[in-house]
Amino acid sequence: MHYLTGHNREQAQIFTKLEDLVSARHYVRLIDLIAEKFFIDNAPCFGEKGDQSIGRKAYSPAHLLKLYIYGYLNGISSSRKLERECARNLELMWLMNQLVPDHKTIADFRKDNGEAIKQSVLAFGKWLQQSGYIKGDVVSIDGSKIRANASQSFDLDHVSKKLGQLETQLQEYVAKTSCTDQLDEGTEQAEREKGELQQHIKGLQQQINELELKKAFLDQEQAKRISPTDPQARIMKMPSRQALLLQCPSGCG
Hints:
two-stranded antiparallel ribbon, 10 helices, disordered C terminus
């Protein structure tokens, strides 16, 4: 049959280097340079592992830093996944010089050097911006829900319900104030309680006034829900996951 067969797995390869398998303009080369420079400039920030000449040799913080920057750029945060990638990902094999640290070593490095890792990622982004690789003047958000003007909107049903609750509370506080006036009038405790109740009444009255303004605004616009800052804004309804599954035809992922 007329198919491509690829290389024979049993055939020995000579003159094949990892260096030849990673292109000269690949971004892992930038990670390699930036991580090495950051480690040299900030070596004291990474603790004392590797300073002793006895016992098993430690992994270089520079290598583990490269691993975390690579994971950050590729959305890999799990230490176990990073360990697996070191053994099968050609880019990481080149970046890590084929070292495969244990997932606990990776997790401990993150736990012990969280601030240094954060600063290295910020330094990497700053270097990219200064070198002209990125402009840094655009923020992109993919698949995320963010609060906009319409998210601060209020609806008529909620305003009416809240207004009724506040009016009930106001009546209760007014009744308590009347009782305080009749009992132990003139005593220090009674005056203090009366003052506190009056403050509550004042606060409730203010909330009621605000809600009445919102209700009048809704009536004026003839709408059930509206944003006070942007009357044209509307909340975008997002289908639930269950609804999406119901709409998905059989056999889809």
